[in-house]
Amino acid sequence: MGENTLRCLYMIDAVQRLNIDYHFQEEIEAFLRRQYVNSSTIPGGYYGNDIHEIALCFRLLRQQGFFVPEEVFGKFTNKEGKFNQKLGENIKGMVDLYEASQLGIIGEDILAEAGEFSGQVLKEKVDCIDNLEAMFVKRTLEHPFHKSFPMFTARNFFGDFHGTNNTWLDSLKEVVKWISICGNACTIERSLKFLNDIFDVYGTLDELTIFTEAVCRWDITAIEQLPDYMKACFRVLYNLTNEISSKVYQKHGWNPIDSLLNAWKSLCKAFPVEAKWFASGRGACPVLRNT
User: Fold this and answer.
1) Residue 67, Ramachandran bin (φ over 0: left; ψ between -120 and 50: alpha; else beta)
2) Protein fold of 3-164
3) Where in this chain does the record put each Terpene synthase metal-binding domain (predicted)?
4) Does 88 score more than 70 pLDDT?
């Protein structure tokens, strides 16, 4: 991408949304660090005057751990702290402003106003734009990138208008095809991580009970009562396990589905026990250690 800042920002956004950014962490860190240093040392900052570019750069830098002040958006507000209504004509800018607002912290009034303003504009515009843009806007409002699991949302990326002007996407599509073919082992490892997060961080007791029962019955229809992130996790688990079993059966004439299901059942039953054990302050859980 050379020194084309905006194209580099697009590329980083793309690989993150495709959930392949872990292959390029050094390059991403180096580029964003240069952007942050430039913005800190050049008078007036280095963010330009385009709301789309500023919001995208702001989000990527904050995600990477570089604290960019909310005042970079001050140039778009009036004395009362309200955003210029004309900005609402820039749909991409509103999408990125909404995404940027998700990284605000308590007391950042400009970002709070940015979220309210951009969110309201997008809700009003969603029925007035073409279908491709509307789909992306709806997904952004329902599942902002910062609060989503990219491994579950990556499949939507190539259909989004957000990246349609990037000429390198056709080549990237071919890379992703190979990643999807060769990545089963990695997906299993990452599925374990997300299962652990669901049980340790996100799920309520009632939700975890339903989730575990669905796994034990291996019934995909049993997840309708669960929140979207749990549904997505179960579908990945369900589809991946069935796909692996099918491939093993086709190649070796033996179906490992029962063994795989028993492993998932044991793991899901062990996670709640682990949580209770650690909560009691008794150290490592023997049930999970032996699972």
Assistant:
1) beta
2) Glycosyltransferase (1.50.10)
3) 194-281
4) yes
